[in-house]
Queue: 4 jobs
Job 1
Amino acid sequence: MGQPPTTRRYELLCAIMLGFGHLSIMVGYDSGSFVLESVIHSINERNPDVISKYAGYYGQAVMYILYMIGCMFSPSILNEVGSKWILVASAICFASFPLGFFFVNSNYYYFSQMLLGFGYALYYQGNGGYMTSHSTRKTIESNVNIAWSIGCVCLIISSGIFAGVTSMAHAPSPNSNFSKNSNFSKNPELGLENWVERRFSDLEIKLLFGVFFGASVLGIVNFLAAPGKDVTDCIQETKKKGTFLGSFKQTCTALVDRSMLELFFLFSVLGTSSSFWLSIFPTAMNFTVANFEMTYLCAIYPLGIGIGEIFMALFITQMSRRHKDFCFQPAMILGTVFSILAFFMVHVSTPYDSPHKPTREDALWFGHSYFFIFLIGVTLGIGDCCLNSCRSVICALAMPDRRAQAFSISKLYQALGSCFLFFLSPIIPLYVYTIGISVHLIIAMIFFFITARRTQNMEKKNDENEKNEEI
């Protein structure tokens, strides 16, 4: 039997295909999250008996509960079947969700959310396993950011999908004969029952989720075609170690490992912040009645995020080649600063009650515009890319003997943060998010520094021991 390919070109191919698979399935998931609550709200307005108006939030909360449960078992499944096939299975789960919007049914909706949650756990376990089995210590930071930058193109594609579908199928609101500067502003007595927020037509919904389903199928094909052989000197080999139950016990003990407890704040803030940016803030934009003329906000917002994510991923890739451990303290500082800046921009420009109901309230300083929403997206994308890069690298290095468990626990704690947020979303005002998550980010940065420094010292000690053995 020949040795696995060890060329840098082979590693790049694996990173590119992993990134493209991420792109394919996340076109559907991330894009759907941007508009899910608004879409559900629109369906409920036309057919109140079909589905609850807050099913968008509650469905995602259910999804994250299954995500947490899946995270407990996904390392054991990875140990049994390997990273490639776990990625294929996860893509199938992702494809099941958009199908439900061709025949909206509350029971199938929640079932597909449960399936999506389990698939989400499988995907990120497979993603981490595939990356560590197709990277060396020298290339892990670069490969992570290459795959991430390709995957984040999904946000730019999402922008194009939203713009195209909106231009073809968007139905004018019942009050489109008014403008913000005419009857609406002069007649505040017009209630929300007469003046509506951004709504999605049935045709618009079917076109959007049809494209999302097609993208998920493309992801299945991509993962089937992805190379399966490990590189030599990889961080983690793809081979079965121990039993299913033994792997599960390792996951349970890793839950209370010192490093994982310190990183809890980073993992959980990734859950709360990503849920806010993917679902709650886009819903707030759509529920702000003053934005009724800006029908392309759903296209501009992911475009900004995608540009920010890709720019920062390429920047981190270059900096990681020049400076070892750039994905530790430097990237964490950048991620925290840019994320808090994005929350501040939302805080001053968005009505406080817009996350949970249509509103005509004024923003703190000024309202939204296409350019400002684009700027928020770019700022968010830069911060989010840094934080996710830190998470991917620290999980690969902080627990060398239990890497699969580290990746799984990171997602379990992330899902816990998301689940908590979505269950409370129908009642939490905007300012609780913007201030609370910003404080959470600062705490996460402090504890991340502690773990990063200990990991660096551990690696330095291991390198010295290897040199002494060679002598």
Job 2
Amino acid sequence: MSNRLEALRVFCTAADAANFREAAVRLSVSPQVVTRAVRELEEELGEPLFHRSTRGVRLTEFGSRLAERARTAVGGVDELFHRTDRRALSQHAGTVRVAAPHVYARQIPEALAPLLAAWPGLVLDLRLSEQHADVVDQKIDVGVRVGPMRDVRFVARAVGRMALHVVGAPSLIERVGVPRDLDALSALPLTALIDHGSGRPWPWAFSKRRSVTIASPAFATDDIDAECAAVLAGVGFGQLIGPLAEPWLQSGALVAVLEAEAPEPWPIQVYRPQRAPVPARVRLVYDALVRALR
């Protein structure tokens, strides 16, 4: 494949697919075309791009770095031509429905604002919930999920990790002291975030796959900002996600406790349904979110 841009385009598709056959389906070409393009890139660059096995393919470390740069390069060339291409404008017109946790309520609109300005026909429909969206029933095009995602029906890209902190206000700690272990924590005033699906509080997660069930919360809500406000007011200790807790930890308004018991940070992933062909507007928003949330 003599055209380097087309080879990179094929490589980017293969990087997002489970295997070369799936990439070929998305590109409407034969698997041999994908295999040949990847092999030629590997020969030219002198580095393997994929680990190959009977179960599929997986990017090498070099391949992952190249994929990031290649997506930017291919996207830049496409955008250069699409800006003056009426056909492309029509391809990117329409609504893209995005599902995300409430913590991204400000970040996603701000991140996608330049994209919406560049493509006047593109409409963002943002649905916020702590629940994992029902992609089919809610007609979700792109989603952001905090936590593991093993569903093969989706293409998912890891964009970061999110920590959990057990925190309390200095006034609360002065009143009840610092818990030394999970048993001591359970005996103190705690806040709870209600799971919309079950109607019960989400359990708190800790290292070694341990959890604490909040049986008698001092404060319960289904809104993460309200829970954070209660913790700041000294109502109880709360387990808050990093983006909520960390600014207050830095200012001293909250104090972290039991940090040695904290769980591994959760993966943050941007995903879209595994379907072909992918509408141009969906791929545009998906790629923009991956870049913005990294």
Job 3
Amino acid sequence: MRKGVSSQPKKVRKRYFNAPLHQRHKDMNAPLSPELRREYGIKRLPVRKGDTVLIMRGSFKGHEGKVTGVDLKRRRISVEGVTRNKADGTPVPIPIHPSKVMITRLDLSDKYRQTIINRKRRVEVA
């Protein structure tokens, strides 16, 4: 057992629901597609705005679209084209949990993300 980490359910839940945003970002992981997995040598990455994802579960299963938003407070993402209409007819994005999607194309416009991929690759290969 790791020192300083509780296994009591109430403490685990407390840490989960009161986690700061930089730790919540790590909870936003989604698996990579088999092609990306072979290319980068890693299994999962946190989802970012601009990534293209394939929805694997739920009523929108099979829908592919670009991530339009990431909500760290609610731990959900918004995907382009996954909406419903309100009573007045305005479309509202349906929030999706990142574990229910698969990343099919990465947005590498941020050079820091490439360093994260390289760092994870070294850890998972070793």
Job 4
Amino acid sequence: MDAGAVLPKHAHLHEQTGYLTEGKIRLTIGKQVFEVNKGDSWCIPGNTSHSAEILKESVAVEVFSPVRDEYLPQKVK
């Protein structure tokens, strides 16, 4: 994720868990604001509004539970 990028406030049904492997982000979950650094992790409950600001070029690994339909392979006809 590029420094200066903003992920706007949104929510979805899926629980979202993440781990920051590189960089620094400001993550807002509900009304709480967190500065997330390399090696930190987070968990966002389903249906909870959240947003992020990328403070330093970053790499995150995220898991959604249950898996989001748009991340499933499409059937080949």
